[in-house]
Amino acid sequence: MNRLLGARAGWRWVHLILGGALLMPYFLLAQVVVGVVAGGVNALDSAPLSLLAYALSLPLVAATALFGPVRPMSVVAVRAMCGVPGEGLADGPARSWAARVRASAWWTLHLGTGALISGMTLAVPPMAVVLIAVPVVGRLGDVRLGYGWFATDTNPYAAPLVGIGLLAGLALCAAGAGQLLARTAPVLLGPTPADRLAAAEERAADLAVRNRLARELHDAVGHALSAVTLQAAAARRMLERDPEFVREALAAIEDTTRRTVGELDAVLGLLRDGDPDRPDAAHAPTLATDLDGLLARTRAGGTTVTAHQDPGPTGDWAALPAIASREAYRIVQEGLSNALRHGAGPVDLRIRVRTGSDPGVGSDTGSDTDTDTAYRRLEVTMTNPPAAPDDDREPRTGGGRGLRGAAERAALLGGSIEAGPYGDGWRLRAVLPLTGDDR
């Protein structure tokens, strides 16, 4: 009974009636054409001509549905009225002719079926009311009840049963048609392979943005917290013995936090859709703009960092492709953060641009060449001993989120990273190709 008279059945009935209303312009146009062809008669006065006009209106419905925003409108209506799960329907306009044809078939089915149910909804209830009222008002004279089903000599008490049967039949037809549309909607309005591919690409792009934001937040904030923690600890230990060191440590903490707040605001700006002042990636720190500052802030915490820099023939980190310089800076920052959190100084950092025929990550050897076809790459190598057994720093057991993020950064440029035990300490080594275009 709920399937016939429940709320869902009622909404599906309304959905069908809306389809019948949408068919009316097509039907009126077709009945004018049929009337003219039939010799100027009114097609509405003839049941056969009305049926012919109905049949001719369906191709018009199908043709117009190929070029309009039929699928988005239909999907919204089906979700709201037919109780079809949203994941079974496609979002957005049709992206291919196959999807348009399927949407056209749905539009034709909806409007065609809706017109029949609408016609029945208009005709059956008055007929049923007349039949139910026969025992009360008599046999209605010599009128055969207006429908030719009962003669004046028919038992009047049978008419109400027929009227009730008509109403039940109408409810059954409406429920069946609504169920048909609900089952057909995922087939004709469901996602095509092109829709699934577009959705997968959108999810992949969204995931890439999320990963990028996670990397930026981890690298900027994580390094700052590690550096500030060690700088504050070093200042506390040297408070009485070396006030000048404490002053430098506090200045480094101030500079570190100020820079981190700026970077945090830049990253969060990426989350503000439609923000015209959203900072561009070009404003992120690079080897050219902040490598010396990064090293100074790390040293302010009491960690000894020995840096060997070789920018190549140009002698300037600014000559590197911007994206390589940005990602290399973050990789160096992550390596220093790991050294601050898990290791003990000194840290040996080597950054150099090399030109050679062997782009492998695992080899530190190989002759440099100066040919036009040589493979240019940026190599970052960082080594440091582990923390002492009585040190309260975290023991290093392997790469965490930061190293995974650094590996993702390198992979985006076609490079790679190695990180792990090396001799009696720990080594991080990254190779970033420099043969691509500047981005």
CATH topology of the largest domain: Heat Shock Protein 90
Silhouette: elongated
User: Can you summarize the main beta sheet?
Assistant: 5 strands, mixed
**CATH 2nd-level architecture of the largest domain:** 2-Layer Sandwich
| Radius of gyration (Å) | 38 Å
The total strand number stands at: 5
Descriptive account of the structure:
It comes from Streptomyces avidinii. This is histidine kinase. Residues 381-405 are annotated as: Disordered. One of its GO terms (molecular function) is kinase activity. The chain crosses the membrane at residues 12-39, 51-70, 105-137, 157-182. This protein has 439 residues and is an alpha+beta fold. It folds into 2 domains: 2-190, no CATH class; 198-433, Heat Shock Protein 90 (2-Layer Sandwich). Helix content is 58%, strand content 10%. The chain is built from 11 helices and 5 strands, in the order αααααααααβαββαββ. The chain has helices spanning 2-5, 7-37, 47-65, 70-81, 97-137, 159-189, 193-237, 243-269, 287-299, 322-342, 401-412; strands at residues 305-310, 347-356, 375-384, 416-422, 425-433. It has a 5-stranded mixed sheet. α2 (7-37) crosses α3 (47-65) and α2 crosses α5. It starts with a helix and ends in a 6-residue tail after the last strand.
